[in-house]
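Fold it.
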Amino acid sequence: MSVVLGLAVGAVTVLLLRIAAAGILRAPALQRPNYREHIIPTGTGVLIVIALLVIEAGRAILGSLGVGDDPGLTIERSEVLFAVFGFGLLGLIDDIAGDSTRRGFRGHLGALRDGEITTGLLKLFGGAGLAVVLVATPGFATGRRLLVDAVLIALAANLGNLLDRAPGRTIKAALVAYVPLAIVLGDGPVGVAIAPVMGAAFALLPDDLGERLMLGDAGANVLGATLGLGVVLGRGEVTRGTALGVLIVANIAAEIWSFSAVIDRLGPLRWFDRLGQRPERRGA
């Protein structure tokens, strides 16, 4: 499967699931107010998770029939599938049971100091554990690289969540980051593995921008982790170190400044952020 085909299959699959799951998305447990206080379903990024499962199952079935160049489940596809399921589950728990009054590292650590384990803290520590397991898979180096690459994946997932404060923002940012990564990865095994995830995200963008659904942590977590894993699996030490540095700075900055406030003050970023959104968006 080529990258272009993977993108297309991911997009088509999630659109079909979006139609089929219309009733499920109306479930009371998923209904949350957005920044405009409109009640819409959250956690719908879980559709990306299900879409990837359907795609990989389809690949396996076709492979058993002798269709395709690489019918087996490669290590790259296994890694992406595990990452998507793990980070998607942690995000969905936070979407459904999370307390929005506790945000950021300081908020969740403050809750822990008070003897409370928040779903956000569970997501942070669970994400760190998932990242370590991903990097420790056979074929990866141990020691310093284990730490560096695990932190990279975990911070990428967290940055996806931090950006999810306005319609379409996380998906747009993820697609911008994905374009250069896709170019350097090409049609290699890593590029093919992450393509369906990004195609599925792109297909959900119109509904996200139109405020018909919220991606939620179940989707933002997944997109960030997938891109981080793509860097870890497909790039060299210099690129991974640079990416880690950028992610550390971005995550620390989010604890100090509001991304929404910064975006609103910078014309080009404000234009891109509001591109495709419904009018009269107020700051998040």
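The radius of gyration is 18 Å.
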